Here is the input.
Amino acid sequence: MFRKTIERELATLKRFMDDLRHVVKPKPIERFAMDINGSVQEIVESMRAEGERNGIAVEAHYAAGPLTIEGDRFALGRVYRNLITNAIQATEPGGRVTIATARAGDHVEVTFADTGTGIPAERLSAIFDDFVTTKTRGLGLGLAISKRIVEQLDGTIAVQSEVGRGTSFTLRFPARDDLSAHAAAS
Here is the structure.
């Protein structure tokens, strides 16, 4: 029990240090043809156990692919992990976190929705700012860094929330159909 607590605290500390390091000196973003479904699935699978430990169902719905964008798998993995972690932390046991991919015209969307506590309207406009957090722990850098990463990949991140009903974040990226063959081959 004690060892698990220490391991969890060390993981939290490591995330703090990574976030601080990223703010001071952001990692360069690389761009490769990538399939959104595959990159989302990888992170969802790795975070399911975290949801289960907290009594929360983590579900995913994937649109028929390939949904190809020009992206950075590592950087986007970090964004997905941050959004799923936040959703799990905001949701009471018995709740659910749903991740869905979709094609919307010439864009690809990924939505992260939870049945959590929601974010008060007056706080919504500031949630992407550095050092802003609604949690008792954390530096409030996760969403700021996530927004920067998404924008560096020519994407957008939008949020909708209702107190007591939940929150959803939607990432939107330009689709790159001309790269589908390359992504499928890699």
About this structure: Helices lie at 2-24, 36-53, 73-90, 121-124, 142-152, 180-185. The longest strand covers residues 96-104. The radius of gyration is 16 Å. The chain is about 45% helix and 25% strand.
